[in-house]
Amino acid sequence: MKILITGASGFIGSFIVEEAIRQGFETWAAIRRSSSKDYLQDPRIHFIELDLSSESKLVEQLQNCSFDYVVHAAGATKCLNKADFARINTEGTKNLVTALRILQMPIQRFVFISSLSIMGAIREKLPYQEICETDTPQPNTAYGKSKLQAEQWLDTQKDFPYVILRPTGVYGPREKDYFLQFKSIKGHTDFAVGHQRQDITFVYVSDVVQAVFLALEKGKTGRRYFLSDGEVYQSADFSNLIHEALGRPWWIRITAPIWLLRIVTTCGEWIGHITGKVTALNNDKFNILKQRNWRCDITPAINELGYKPQVKLEEGVRKSVEWYQAKGWL
């Protein structure tokens, strides 16, 4: 069976490629000309350059191909301009699916990697409840809006076998955003935002990969599945586990008020536009950090896919630290 994986050089995509190889798929990694192949060294990987910005180019690039499965993991999580999220995450998805349909590709399953961010801050008051399918998404970030728009467009594609996965915060080896917190604590400083209780969720990258292949096998067309490790954590838990895994270096914990974060991210966004470099401190990050509730209900994934989270936060943080240290990141 042949599988095409977009975003193959990225954090999650590269692990999906490895699992596809392990399971015996003829694995095609979709990359850009500028993509790094650092995590794509297996000689059994087939490479294909795809331009997701152009439907016509995709038709040309895919015309001599035939795939049984497609995992669409490509996307942007940080952009200088808000419009770029829609261009990459929404329009890129439209272009890919349209090209596959024009070519009458015999796709058995198309798995789209979306995000819990599409829900937004819909339940910010105590008592917290699980997010369920009856909730109406209200994304409060440009990233979340672009993923939701892609989901909604997929809903218009009749007789197309798509399944949507909505992971919460994904962490693990090779990840670069959460890594900044590891690096900060290694440097003796931990930053937190807001003084109200914050319920957060995580999912280790290997569990996301597990869900991808379960969705390829068992996912119901048109269904959405939230993904987490099944636990709910408080905002300090992640920092405490990182601190423990690093051998308890001395540290200072700083809790900044929300209004100060607003100033910092506004300045970060302004500096990014001046320098032309995307910064992690932007307006989307402000909305993410100020949100107090990141719960999600993974029961459908458990019942329908057979999803069983294998890695809880303590183990995942330890594995991440070991990898970062082995690679000289920490």
Could you characterize the architecture of this molecule?
This protein is α/β, with parallel strands linked by helices and about 325 residues long. The chain has helices spanning about 10-20, 55-60, 80-100, 140-155, 180-185, 205-220, 235-245, 260-275, 285-290, 300-305, 315-325; strands at about 1-5, 25-30, 45-50, 70, 110-115, 160-165, 170, 190-195, 200, 200-205, 225, 235, 250-255. Helix 3 packs parallel to helix 4 and helix 7 packs across helix 11. It is globular, with a radius of gyration of 20 Å. It starts with a strand and ends with a helix. The model has no long low-confidence stretch (mean pLDDT about 90).
Summarize this structure briefly.
This protein has 330 residues and is α/β, with parallel strands linked by helices. It has a domain at 2-170 and 202-231 and 295-310: Rossmann fold, CATH 3.40.50.720. The chain is built from eleven helices and 13 strands.
CATH fold annotation of the domain at 2-170 and 202-231 and 295-310:
Rossmann fold
Largest sheet geometry: 7 strands, parallel
Number of strands: 13
Q: What is the CATH superfamily of the domain at 2-170 and 202-231 and 295-310?
A: NAD(P)-binding Rossmann-like Domain
Determine the fraction of residues in helical runs and give it as a percent range: 40-55%
Computed CA radius of gyration, to the nearest angstrom: 20 Å
Low-confidence stretches: none
Instruction: Note the gap between the termini.
Output: 39 Å
In terms of DSSP E residues, the strand content is 15-25%
Task: Give the topology string: H per helix, E per strand.
Answer: EHEEHEHEHEEHEEEHEEHEHHHH
Known CATH architecture of the domain at 2-170 and 202-231 and 295-310: 3-Layer(aba) Sandwich
Mean pLDDT: 92
Please give the CATH class of the domain at 2-170 and 202-231 and 295-310. Alpha Beta
Helix/strand structural class: alpha/beta
H/I helix tally? 11
Strand order across the largest sheet: 3-2-1-4-5-6-11
Shape: globular
InterPro entries: Epimerase_deHydtase, NAD(P)-bd_dom_sf
Domain NAD-dependent epimerase/dehydratase: 3-225
Family: Belongs to the NAD(P)-dependent epimerase/dehydratase family.
Protein name: NAD(P)-dependent oxidoreductase
